[in-house]
Amino acid sequence: MQFLIPILTLGLLGLLFSIGLSFAYQKLKVEEDPKVEAISEVLPQANCGGCGYSGCRAFAEAVAKGKAEITGCPVGGEDVSQKIARIMGTEAGKAIKKVARVHCRGNTKAAREKGIYLGITTCHAAHIIGGNKECVYGCLGFGDCVRACPFDAIHMGEEGLPVVDADKCTACGKCVDACPRDIIDLQPVSQNIMVFCRSLDSAAAAKKACKNACISCGICVRACPEAIVLENNLAVIKDYKKIDPEKIPAIEKCPTDAIGRITKEENHEG
Q: I want to staple 106 with a disulfide (CB 3.0 to 4.6 A). Which of 13, 75, 111, 240 is the partner?
């Protein structure tokens, strides 16, 4: 009998707390927009963060609230954008497919090595001590971008540089974040001409470190001054739309191949 009273008391308190919590839930619960669930169901559930949100659910909530663009999912592409548009009762517009591009041609044949690297075989670790190449701006070649890609869209080529598979790339941006040298960015797949260098060294130093480095000779600038400029010893394409296709052959007269069209090998085509 001495145990019965405490047990009944605890049971009664538990019941009262349950009723109280149930009442509080009914009063305080927030009704979720049914569009959130509908949008979430059509998303690829990659949770890659390429949309700028922590995951697909967070992106769905942002779209439903009008805080994110309908075309914001890089993995789903235009197909998913159209489905979300139907859910939201609006037009999706044309989604521009983007892919990761590697701004470096400092492969094993072109880039000069300053020694043998025996440290941890990651780009981030090598970057801390400068890596094993003379160029401090180029690809370190240890494949952090490859390991970061959740879609198997990048692999290390035979010449020590990452190669992007344009068909598999979803422009999630994981490789961009993984590269400590900032030589990878996302560009529209239609832009097939780019500067394959990020070196800010003087012409003499850049050429000594890598045969394919930009030596700020200005050939590309003179060929297309309305689109290309020199900044800090490096050619920079300011406006791709202003590049006249007829001027591309003149731009490609670059003596070090530091600017030009993306090759099939670099784009993993064919």
A: 111
Which amino acid is it at 177?
Answer: D
Instruction: Retrieve residue 229's tokens.
Output: 């400029």
Of 45, 240, 68, 265, the closest CA to residue 155 belongs to 265
Q: CA–CA separation, 230 vs 238, rounded Å?
A: 10
Strands 98-102 and 184-188: antiparallel
Q: Which residues, 6 or more positions from 122, have their beta carbon under 8 angstroms from its beta carbon?
A: 142, 144
The structural domain count of the chain equals 2
Task: Give tens-digit pLDDT for 225-266.
Answer: 999 999 999 999 999 999 999 999 999 999 999 999 987 766
pTM, whole model, 2 decimals?
0.77
Strand-pairing partners, residue 133, are 113
Query: Which residues form the domain of 117?
Result: 98-261
Q: How far apart are CA 222 and CA 134, in angstroms?
A: 29
Q: Which two structure tokens, joined as six digits, stand for 122?
A: 């990651």
Residues 160 and 201 both lie in one domain: yes
